[in-house]
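User: Okay, second chain of the day. Same drill as before: sequence in, structure tokens out.
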Amino acid sequence: MSGTTRLAAVLAILLFALVPPDEVRAADPVNAGASVDRASISVGDRIALSVIADAEVGYIVDEPTIARQIGSFEVVTTQAGQKTTRGSLVRWTYRYSITAWTVGDLVLPSIAVPYLGPDGAAGIAHTGEVPIKVVTVVAPGEDTADIKPIKPQLDIPEAAWIKVGRIALGLGAAVAIAGLAALVFWLLLRRRAVLAQQRLTPVQRALRELDELAELRLPEQGKTAEHYARLSAGLRRYAVERYGVQPGGTSREMREELERAGVERMQAAAIFEILREGDEVRFRHTTPYPAHAQNTVKSALDVIRRAASAEEYETAALQTE
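Assistant: Same drill. Structure tokens below.
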């Protein structure tokens, strides 16, 4: 090895030795570690386990993925996590109490600590393994003949509140399923009604809407403006769908459109009068008698029936029965 190569190797070793471990790990946005309060216990003794994760600002650390068992160790208690700030890092600390029932040189395995980055990307930091020695409570040379075998666990009767909770859960699930079935059934009926409505001709649709409006008897409830608004909307929709006239415009413009479309002058005039009366109620706030308002619906029905062809009128009559 040349003198230059040996010098470069020595410098690299010195540089690695001078850089603190924390700075080496700083390349990762989240670093996790595990520590215990003692590395040797008697079987059944508790160990205070701390899982610490240091994260850069903007990173959110979630609770470690720990079940009731970590390798050969049993998790006895779990404490709420704590969040503190250490300079430019945020420290997340999670504490547990663990124990072991197996004698020997054990190893606390690596623990996964999930986190979420500021860009929404998920990641996992892992702690290192921790060696722990578990020894027996029996002293060397001690006679163990008087130690009795552990009796099998007795069956504990189920508490009444647990039974009640299970029954309530079952009833809740049944109600949820029934509600879901009812919702699906209602959606099917609604879709069927919409499809049936779409298959109607303009005459059939107008007759059905006007019959429903007459049955509501809105003027007798003090809803005269709503009554005429629905009546005018139904007639305008009928004229647009049946004769292809332009929607919108005033009542007089609608009459002129109908006459240009070839509609009989008396029928166009009748539609115009009903629309004009609706404009008077809606815009000038006049209030006809309820009986007169109800008769206006009958007049609109007569106009549509007279204009319908014999075949279409017969089908429309069947649809509205």
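The chain is about 50% helix and 20% strand.

User: Thanks, on to the next one.
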